[in-house]
Amino acid sequence: MPSIDYDVIIAGGGPAGLITSRRVAEDGHNVAVLEEHPEIGRPDHCAGLISTSGLRSLKLRPPKDVVQNHVSAARIFAPSGQSILIERGKREAFVLDRSRFDSWLAEKAADAGAEILTKNKVLDVDCAKQKPCTVTLKTGEGREIKRSQVVVDAEGSRCQLSRLVGLPTVPRRNKYPAYQFEMSGVDIADDVVEMYYGRHVAPGFFAWIIPLGDGRARVGLAAKDLAKMRLEASIRQHPVMSKRLEHAYIERGFGGIVLVGTPIKRTVSGRFLVVGDAAGMVKPTTGGGVIMGGAAARIAGRVVSRTLLDGRQIEEGLRLYESNWRALLMRELRAMHLAQRMISSLSDQGLNILIRDAENFDLVDIVRKEGDMDMQRKVIFRLLANPYTILAGLRAIRYFNPLL
Ligand SMILES: Cc1cc2nc3c(=O)[nH]c(=O)nc-3n(C[C@H](O)[C@H](O)[C@H](O)COP(=O)(O)OP(=O)(O)OC[C@H]3O[C@@H](n4cnc5c(N)ncnc54)[C@H](O)[C@@H]3O)c2cc1C
């Protein structure tokens, strides 16, 4: 029988793959992270807004050169231009340089013993029953075949590998195009993130300005279609955004895919696991996936490592991953999905009413007191149970548009 090259092969060197690899390597297993690009973290696509509490929950304390800014509040704009400010009087989130963040995670994983192999693209995976998996790669030198006891798919939003082992993939309808510019000369407070909703601005999603400090910002938009065109139009014409950006200039532009919806229905098949964006593990309200994917990655790392250490039947041991991550995240993700669907079903008039009533009825106070950037279920249900929300919802629902 051909020998085993690795205990664990991880396809994809983003946060989900790197966090999994570190956990597995810490227990002394032989793990390789295969990343198709020449450098970890590049090209980047992310806005880098990550909650401080989420990072704490992952036991990550990014160094100073990874943190570009801190923010403590979010201002949410209705299509009318009216806004609500949600501030919680503390440093709610970091704005991270995602390229540096990913490189830092890679250093930590390598320190724990993981092998990080760039310019290694996974082309094919074959995980037959009760046998090690075979992974076909394209490297700088050509094609190679590697064998490992377990394969973890952390390939991000492209989501193609899981179908090779008969698992579902994130459906195309849940993938929204996104585009961002990094700009200088932006007229925005250094510690407030701005989010702009509206059917004409960003159908199905929203636009954002995330301050980087000193008048620099990431200005982006995701929508059902035409993200870059819509972003350029908003920069020129949006009543509020255009003012903020009147004297700004573009340093660089970059795109990506934001995921919406809930995770795929199965994430384990035999010796193959799916984690992070590849499994659709993002907050449906914002598309943010670093903390959700990171939380699942820690579970994946723990389950894989224990299964290998216990010497028990691998397929049986890995099944725990599915039940464990779902127990931690699924209720949260379902509640956020419900909220996102309600918001994206409203027409512009409906959104205007919702924002206006949220301010008038002090609903913002509930969010201020009970909101959490990642675990949003509690505040969503508190809001839904509030009589004023029901009143505002009834007013807004007249403008429900089933075609949106
Ligand atoms: C515009 C935009 C803004 C965002 N802003 C935020 C934000 O502010 N906060 C937040 O939490 N999330 C944000 N996200 C989402 C966030 O970027 C993702 O949730 C996160 O990167 C997912 O991590 P991951 O490790 O699962 O995948 P990724 O970070 O996508 O990493 C996957 C890696 O796998 C590699 N890869 C893919 N296929 C293969 C293969 N076959 N072989 C080898 N390597 C492969 C890729 O090159 C990549 O490096 C944003 C996304 C977009 C598009």
What can you see in these coordinates?
With 404 residues, this protein is an alpha/beta fold. It has three domains: 6-46 and 99-170 and 264-329, FAD/NAD(P)-binding domain, CATH 3.50.50; 70-95 and 176-259, D-Amino Acid Oxidase, Chain A, domain 2 (2-Layer Sandwich); 345-397, no CATH class. Helix content is 35%, strand content 26%. It contains eleven helices and 18 strands. The chain has helices spanning 15-26, 52-57, 98-112, 227-237, 241-244, 290-310, 314-344, 348-360, 363-370, 377-384, 387-397; strands at 6-11, 31-34, 49-51, 67-71, 73-77, 83-87, 93-96, 115-117, 121-126, 133-139, 142-153, 175-184, 192-196, 207-213, 216-222, 249-259, 268-269, 272-274. Strands 1, 2, 8, 9, 10, 11, 17 and 18 form an eight-stranded mixed beta sheet that branches. Helix 1 (15-26) packs parallel to helix 3, helix 6 runs antiparallel to helix 7 and helix 9 (363-370) runs antiparallel to helix 10 (377-384). It is globular, with a radius of gyration of 22 Å. Mean pLDDT is 89; it is low at 397-404. The structure holds flavin-adenine dinucleotide (FAD). Residues 11-17, 34-37, 45-50, 121-122, 154-158, 178, 180, 220, 256-258, 276-278, 282, 287-291, 293 line the site of flavin-adenine dinucleotide.
